[in-house]
């Protein structure tokens, strides 16, 4: 019974680590949209 719980915890930790690496290196980040009307003189940067 103890090895089943240990296996579940190991596979869960491994899945979380793989998901973190995929998100960090392969996920496309969207650029923030400008909400100041398009000019850079609004001072919101």
UniProtKB/TrEMBL annotation:
Key words, A-Z: Membrane, Transmembrane, Transmembrane helix
Listed transmembrane segments: 6-26
Pfam families: FeoB_associated
Keyword Membrane found: yes
Full protein name: FeoB-associated Cys-rich membrane protein
Organism this protein belongs to: Flavivirga spongiicola
């Amino acid at each position: 019974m103890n090895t089943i719980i240990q296996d579940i915890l190991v596979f869960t930790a491994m899945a979380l680590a793989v998901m973190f690496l995929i998100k960090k290196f392969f996920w496309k980040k969207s650029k923030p949209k400008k909400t100041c009307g398009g000019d850079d003189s609004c001072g919101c940067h």
